[in-house]
Amino acid sequence: MKDIRQQLLAVFDLEHREHLAAMRATLAAAAAGGEVDRLDLFRRAHTLKGAARAVDLPAVERVFHRLETVLSEQADEGRALDEPACRGIALALDAVEEAIAAVMHGQPEPDLHEAIEALGQVAQAVAPAGQGGPEGDTPAPRTEGEAESPAPSRPAAAQPQPSSSSQPPQAAPPAASTFLTVAAEAVEQVTGASYELALAVQARQGVDQLYKELQTQLQQLERSWEQLRAAERQALARSDPAKVFQARLRAASRQLASLNLRQRQASWSLAQAAGQLREQIEHLSLVPAETVFGGFARMVREIARSEACEVEFSATGLDLQLDMSLLRVLKDPVMHLLRNAIGHGAEPPEQRRRMGKPAALQITLSLEARGSQLLVRVCDDGRGLDFGKIRQVAAERGLIPPGIAHSLSKEQLSKLLLHPGFSTASEVNKLSGRGIGLSVVQDVVRRLRGHFSVEAGNPWGTIALIRAPLSASRQALLIVEAEGLVYGLPMTAVERVMRIKVEDVGKVGGQPVVEVKRGEEVRPVPLAPLAAAVRGAAGVLPAEAGMINIILMRMGERSHALAVDVLHDAGQFVIAAPELIGTDPAIVAGTVVLPDGSPVPVLRAEGLLEQWDTRSDAASLVRAWEGAEHQRRQATILVVDDSITTRTLEKNLLEAQGFRVLVSVDGVDALATLGEHPEIDLVVADIEMPRMDGFALLEAMKNDARFEAIPVVLMTSRAGPDDIRRGLELGAGAYLTKQKFDQRELLATINQLL
After folding, report:
1. How far apart are CA 688 and CA 718, in angstroms?
2. Cα 202 to Cα 137: distance, rounded to the nearest angstrom
3. Quick one: 323 and 459 in the same domain?
4. Element at 684 (helix H, strand E)
5. What dihedral do alpha carbons 142, 143, 148, 153 form, nearest 10°?
6. How many CA atoms lie within 13 A of 308 on its CB side?
7. What percent of the chain has a predicted confidence (pLDDT) above 70?
8. Which of 215, 368, 395, 433: disulfide with 375, CB 3.0–4.6 Å?
9. 13-17, 184-188, 517-521, 551-555: lowest mean pLDDT where?
């Protein structure tokens, strides 16, 4: 198999070229006195800094970190990017490009001191007299008479340097000659062409229908002729022209039937060929997620070492076969989230132990394909979101009106983190403080027509979730009609399609709702006409013969029911950029062209639901009801085990079922946690633990009036009959063995005891 670092370098090689080309274009515009998107330049430097770390190019990483600092200082000083500054930055970019080219040819990474020096000269023009740039990057003082011009220009592309006689030339990447390099954009274009072919096949099916209708008309004409012939048999029998007409009519009917059969066979064959072509082309762009994400484990470890903190990183789902272009687009956002998890989540080990956490910060990256949607989660058990600090920063920056900061929900406060430049960090360092990471993630995910959210973990840490279509350009859509207009709804957000009676529509706060059953529970969901939700105005529920067509939409924990007039079609469509005049980019993600040639706007589920949330009283009342109900039914479980692997496994399993989970490392720690958290409803404990084992913990709990009513599940590898008898005699609610561990049995036992 091709070396994973060579695969990552190949991806980085393509990526850095794109960013450098865009940055050079920005510098050229700045040097010419045009408008400059400084934020875009900053973001690209930020992205390349993290990408360089991911592929182990520390010198390149230092250059882009220095460039971030220079750009930040210039912005703080209110200075424009003048021609000398642009020239110095361009020299640094040339040096980086040359260094990366050398690495791609098997040579060691240069130290890039000249690039740092060029940026130092730019910074020196910004910093107050007598001060240089931060982090020791101040250029060495020049001797008397030395010119203050920037370093001499370097070639934009590097050539491999000849090897010395004492050092044999290094081979190129081992698998470079075994692969055909094709631009991802080219694969996307061919894939799009295959979908255009599929649309053409679908349009041809309309021709098949016309043939069928014409054949039916001929058959009816032939039957009419037979009836006429029977009525006028004597006259027609003596009419030669009538006999000739009848014969020609039958021949035409037979020929049309034969042609119709051949046409349907040809259409079927064409559809099969188009489908196979599409599948084969799509397969070309599928690679294991590890190809792009495989370097993150090492990146996290290196960041942890540089920050002198302990981190345990785990990743699941990297074996998923995914679209290479999608992975490339998501690489930067995921990298930002992992860096944020360390920068904002790391805590001193002693503090973590006092809270019942393992000494090392736990970070998990998980990828999951669900239907036509990819879910990417980055979770940590660090310090979590500081909502007080978020309120303070938002108020200081004027993002929220004065006086309402304390009335905002945690969900509303979490969304403030996605504003460009928003940061709760107390200082700027390599990992955090500039407020760029999350806004980069938000922008990228929106361009993918996906959804990004950040929320507090339970009970600790932070959960960042990206939901994106499995293809960057194609999406499964439900085509519907409302008040004479046709729309496309992303199937990733469609939970179900229903048809209900008008009298089954309920009311909450005077607004319509529909009751939806999920499992054993029935919940009210806000209901609105789709056309009204698009306009952001009130409307009348469309009904036909006393029935309403309803589409239940869901994004995360939020649900809405949308009423439509007609359900037209469902399928895969190629989505283009919005080209319809007057559409709102907040709720329109793109445009598709139907087989009949008509353009249809594709609605953005997140924007549509948020817009309706802001004006619907029913939505806010239902949210309050759901929040209270959630608090009523959520139970807290304490997991006690000295094995971090077992604790993490059981914690993740229980949290996925909606439980709040606390952890302890042994019986002594568990008793302290029980004393601090009277809300604990159940304990899952191992037996073999240091200081105090599970039996001693169980006995201590049953002898303490505060804890004796709390059910205990012993989960252990000791499966002997004497151990089982002892555990049950001491008062265990259940005794489960790890050798026959079945998560369904554990969950069923917990639900029964609760």
Report:
1. 8
2. 63
3. yes
4. strand 682-685
5. -80
6. 1
7. 75
8. 368
9. 184-188
- Helical H runs in 499-582? 530-535
Q: How far apart are CA 347 and CA 353, in angstroms?
A: 10
* DSSP code string of 18-80: HHHHHHHHHHHHHHTT----HHHHHHHHHHHHHHHHHTT-HHHHHHHHHHHHHHHHHHHHT--
500 shares a domain with 436: no
Same-domain status, 38 and 123: yes
Q: Which residue has the tokens 């009106």?
A: 401
105 touches 53 (CB < 8 A): no
Let me know how many helices (H) and strands (E) the chain has, helices first. Answer: 23, 23
Model confidence at 71, pLDDT cuts 50, 70, 90, reads confident
Instruction: Specify if 741 maps to a domain.
Output: yes
pLDDT band at 594 (very low <50, low <70, confident <90, very high): confident
Q: Does residue 728 lie in a domain region?
A: yes
**Among candidate residues 433, 452, 469, the one where a domain is terminated:** 469
CATH number of the domain enclosing 110 = 1.20.120.160
**Would you state the structure tokens that stand for residue 104, as one six-digit string?**
């791609």
Q: Does the CA dihedral 482-487-491-492 come out positive or negative? A: negative
Q: Do 302 and 328 lie in a common domain?
A: yes
Instruction: Determine the residue type at 14.
Output: L
pLDDT over 90 at 745, yes or no: no
- Helix (H/G/I), strand (E/B), else coil: 213: helix
CATH code for the domain in which residue 528 is found: 2.40.50.180
- Specify which residues 648 forms β-bridges with: none
> Which residues fall within 8 angstroms of residue 552, CB to CB, at 6 or more apart?
494, 495, 496, 497, 498, 516, 525, 559, 560, 561
Q: What angle do CA 286, 366, 455 make, to 5 degrees?
A: 130
More confident residue, 149 or 586: 586
pLDDT of residue 683 exceeding 60: yes
269 in a domain, yes or no?
Answer: yes
Write the CATH number for 336: 3.30.565.10
The number of CA neighbours under 13 Å toward the Cβ of 424 is: 22
pLDDT of residue 165: 33
pLDDT at 169: 36
Q: Say whether both 501 and 420 belong to one domain.
A: no
Q: Is the pLDDT of residue 317 over 50?
A: yes
Contact 320, 369 (CB under 8 A): yes
pLDDT at 628: 41
- Start-to-end Cα distance in the chain: 50
DSSP run (H or E) holding 331: helix 324-345
DSSP 168: P
What's the half-sphere exposure (Cβ side, CA atoms, 13 Å) at 685? 30
Domain span including residue 652: 634-753
Closest to 550 in 3D by CA, of 504, 592, 584: 504
Matching residue, tokens 């011009």: 149
For residue 175, tell me if it sits in a domain.
no
Residues contacting 205, CB < 8 A, separation 6+: 267
Residues 52 and 124 in one domain: yes
- Are residues 266 and 303 both part of a single domain? no
- CA gap 270, 475 in Å, rounded: 22
Confidence tier at 134 by pLDDT (50, 70, 90):
very low
Identify the CA nearest to 176 among candidates 13, 345, 305, 403: 13
- Cβ-contact 140, 81 below 8 angstroms: no
State yes or no: pLDDT of 698 exceeds 60: yes
Domain boundary residue among 469, 486, 502?
Answer: 469
| Structural domain count of the chain | 5
Q: In this prediction, what percent of the chain has a pLDDT beyond 90?
A: 14
- The whole-angstrom separation of Cα 54 and Cα 313 is 14
Identity of residue 229? R
Give how far the C-alpha of residue 460 lies from the chain's centroid of Cα atoms, to the nearest Å: 22
| CA–CA dist 253, 225 (Å, integer) | 13
For residues 361 and 380, membership in a common domain is answered with yes
